[in-house]
Amino acid sequence: MDLNETSPREWLYLTTPIYYVNDIPHIGHAYTTIACDVVARTARMTGKPVFFLTGTDEHGQKVWQSAQKFNLSPKIYVDRIMPRFRDLWKSFRISNDDFVRTTEDRHILGVQDALDRLWKKGDIYEGPYEGWYCMFDERFWTQKDVPDGLCPDCKRPVEQVRETNYFFRMSRYQDWLVNWYREHPESIRPESRYNEIMGFLEKPLEDLCISRPVSRMPWGIPIPFAKEYVTYVWFDALLNYITVPLSSPGGAENLKRLWPATHVIGKDILTTHAVYWPTILHALDLEPPRLIFAHGWWTVNGEKMSKSRGNAVDPVVYAERYGSDILRYFLMREGQFGQDADFSDSALVQRVNADLANDLGNLLSRVVAMANRYGEAGVFRIPEDYTPSPELLQAAREMLPEVPRLALRFEFHKALGVLWNFISLLNRYVDSRAPWVLAKDPGRKNELDSVLSDLLEGVRITAVYLAPFMPQTAIRIFESLKSTESLTGLSYQTDGVWGRLPKTLALEPVSPLFEKRNPDGSVQKEPRPSRQEPPEKSGGTPVLASPGDAPSTDPENPGQVQPEARPAKPEIDLEAFQKVELTPARVLAAEPVPKSKKLLKLTVDIGREKRTVVAGIAGSYTPEELVGKTILVLANLKPAKLMGVESQGMVLAAQTEGGVSLITFDRDLDPGSEIR
Ligand code: ME8
Q: Which atom of ligand 1 is nearest to the CA of 17?
């Protein structure tokens, strides 16, 4: 069930898994929790009522063993570890409405009540058990599952166990479950996970062993009708999703209002959620979850990350180094939510420098600095007759359905992609409208103020759409703009529309939102100035401008708030890139273009043929020094006439402080060699 399809008044009951406290949290836990937080915040901003639950799974073998390792009683141990999770969520600004611990009375009583009901109904029975037990995964396997004596999941040795136990009649509900999923194919996402579960359900379902003898493992919820047993940790843990609403004010009515829930989990715990849990719910006369979204796995340098492997990325360390909002952004932007992704410092640094420092941070700094500088005595006034730029207005309007819609479909990277397109549009608008040029002409004061109003509103709206992903950054932007929004009650409908800024703004220059990073993650001490100059003419001309041709930098405004960083362009896919034919070309001849100071006419060999290309490089190269060089040419650009000469391609070069620098190759190669 797509969350966008539920009625706006219907509750979104959203849950994370409750995490084991056998060790401290890692980035995988943060991933699921942040994703839920983004969905919860987005849904609230659309006006939907939300109940967002997370918590800790504190019973079971793993936790018990960890406590033993530290020579602590399990209760003292869990009391020490649990705050690591609770406090981490606070530092990540997770907006959960409740936090459940499975050692709390409200949960224990709820589990015992459910056990009693199922026992009385005959859905739980006592029976002999003989099987192969994996201590690590806390589950039994049959002989055929473990031909090599190793757990099929974790590959650790299994041990044979014979004992009397209690079983939940899960097999009884197999046909019902298969039918349910046939009728509700949208209730497990992504679709591949739905198919996985349907495949799993083709094999006969066994009954589920839901008890552990106290003599073997005492750390669990006592079974009310069999005191020498505790409840199997998964049966205990899954029930948190209903014990919390049931024990809250309103009890059964409260649960009825919230149910069915949307569970966000990692793909590792899909079977427990998509098979065990709906059958337990059905036996308790409750509907299966509305949606189970099983996201992908984070690896580190290609390896599975887990607490037990010791290669876990510590979110506390990263939040301290970068700030929790940056980590939130990275996790939501990098990779697709349903797919695996690899965590690397270099990818993180790249996102910080390009998306955050360059695109967003610079935009805010330059816009606020200009409003401050070009206002009267630091006070900027939105003109009485201000009409917003139709292009920006349209782009902002398109974000209103699109960004929340994508976030509620768990397509976080796409939602952020749409928002960053808007940010790029604003950056291009700064460059094309060049307020520092308008400011030189008193007759264009009204135009200048309108452009700045557009930009200030655009940045404010950016913060509204950013808020679910980067709540602290959104607040900093609102504060920088002296805008009155707060995260509580923020709404797309009222705050995400044009025209909410105060009419008079006394803005002060702001410190950078984000600091640029070196490849090792350390803060770059002195930001390297980068300049961007637009081409001499637009329209795909194969000419590079010489510096100073166009006023794209702000000469009156030196320092880091300059419009100096090149805004990132919208993301393209490989297919788009593959349309571009880049080719090494040997310069056979070069001569000046008559009557032009900048243009040279080159005859180049591109392997399959000769071409004439015209390039604006006369200020940086003499014709003589070019002949014999192998340069890079864009070969499939539509020909264009420049000063009367048809250019059949474009020479590529980098803009430098002193002119341009042609792209050449560090080895000898044939013209026309493939560039990939
Ligand atoms: O399974 N990549 O708790 P747990 C992405 N207590 N997500 C990851 C991850 C990774 N490398 N590693 C962990 C339990 N996760 C049970 C749950 S619910 C009733 C009981 C996330 O501490 C992901 O959400 O092992 C995964 O499902 C969860 O942490 C497992 O957390």
A: 18
User: 25: CA distance to ligand 1 center in Å?
Assistant: 10
pLDDT digits (tens, 9 = 90+) for 297-339: 999 877 877 666 777 899 999 999 999 999 999 999 998 999 9
Q: Show Cβ contacts of residue 541 under 8 Å, excluding neighbours closer than 6 positions.
A: 535, 640, 642, 647, 650
Residue 206, helix vs strand vs coil: coil
3-49 tens-digit pLDDT:
888 888 899 999 999 999 998 999 999 999 999 999 999 999 999 99
Q: Considering the domain 351-506 in this protein, what is its CATH number?
A: 1.10.730.10
**Tally of CA atoms within 13 A in the half-sphere of 324 that contains its CB:** 16
CATH architecture, domain defined by 574-662: Beta Barrel (2.40)
**Spans of all domains in the chain:** 12-295, 351-506, 574-662
pLDDT in the model for residue 615: 93
Class of the CATH-defined domain 12-295: alpha beta
- The pTM score is 0.79
CA-closest candidate to residue 602, choices 594, 644, 592, 641? 592
- Asked whether 665 and 628 are in contact (CB, 8 A), the reply is no
**By the 8 A CB rule, do 211 and 165 touch?**
yes
C-beta of 326 in contact with ligand 1 (< 6 A): no
- Please give the Cα distance from 365 to 368 (Å, whole number): 5
Over residues 74-81, the mean pLDDT reads 98
* Cα 306 to ligand 1 centroid, rounded to whole Å: 9
Burial class (CB in 10 A: 0-12, 13-18, 19+), 402: middle
| Ligand 1 atom having least distance to the Cα of 305 | 11
Ligand 1 pocket: which of 21, 32, 280 to mutate (most atoms within 8 A of CB): 32
Answer yes or no: is the C-beta of 298 below 6 A from any ligand 1 atom. Answer: yes
